[in-house]
Amino acid sequence: MKTQIFQVDAFTSQPFKGNPAAVCILDNPQEDQWMQNVAREMNLSETAFLLREGELFKLRWFTPMVEVDLCGHATLASAHILWEQGYLPAEQKALFSTRSGLLTAQKRGEWIEMDFPAKPEEPTAEPSGLAKALGVEIKYLGRNKFDYLVLVAKEEEVWQLQPDFALLKNLPVRGVMVTSKAEKGPYDFISRFFAPQVGVNEDPVTGSAHCCLGPFWAKRLGKDELLAYQASPRGGLIKVTLQESRVLLSGQAVTIFQGTLQV
User: Fold this and answer.
1) Other CB atoms closer than 10 Å to residue 183's CB: what's the count?
2) Buried b / exposed e across 20-56, counting CB within 10 Å, b at 16+?
């Protein structure tokens, strides 16, 4: 069996920036364990698996450790490959059947716009060890279905974070996003995202986190169109637009390599 696989840097227009994802194009359904093994072999924060089902593509996402319910950057990478490699014409919307329902993506010039469900947070009590694990003073703590949202006072604190991943791994959530209002540059807010619970100490750019960060900052800044920067060492840029219960996430992507799986 030979299967096409690609590596794409997502939420960036520059190679070796943004968040790398693998995109695997399947001709036939594969067993869960095979997909998990491929994701472990790729050793990226997520590997996406695409299988055409009529006008839709079934889309699943795996970290090196587990399957996840929602992933923005690997969806962006998948849409990018479908158009770049001719699986879809450039003017056709990409339709994905996922564990988070129907997701769509469409080209907007050099950008790709994805339509995702909003995942707003609610205030929550601070779990033991969170502030210690992050080494910051928490100004606000929220939680949604997937993650904790930690608000800190200054942008500098986000840039300088050096979490204790062993402590973070004990928390009962997928991950922890830490955010602040941007104090310089063109951005409205910045963030970083840590998910050792699912095998990703720091995710370079996290689309699904912005399904929470977008609504959070829209309320505080009084605007529905936001420019976000994820301040990981690789860095990434995301346009966020709020539309009722949906979040439009826009980014760019660059193909790094393509190959063929021999197993």
Assistant:
1) 10
2) bbbbbbbeeebeeebbbebbeebebbbbbbbbeeeee
* Selection from 208, 140, 204, 141 nearest residue 174 by Cα: 208
Q: What is the pTM of this model?
A: 0.94
128: Cβ contacts below 8 Å, ≥ 6 apart: none
For residue range 36-86, list pLDDT tens digits in order: 999 999 999 999 999 999 999 999 999 999 999 999 999 999 999 999 999
Fold of 122-243: Diaminopimelate Epimerase; Chain A, domain 1 (3.10.310)
Task: Respond yes or no: is residue 46 known to be catalytic.
Answer: yes
Any residues with CB less than 8 A from the CB of 20 and at least 6 apart, and which? 7, 8, 9, 10, 44, 45, 204, 256
Q: Which two tokens stand for residue 96?
A: 């994905």
Q: What is the pLDDT of residues 97-111, one digit of tens each?
A: 999 999 999 999 999
CATH fold, domain 3-113+250-261, is Diaminopimelate Epimerase; Chain A, domain 1 (3.10.310)
Catalytic annotation, pick one of 31, 41, 46, 155:
46
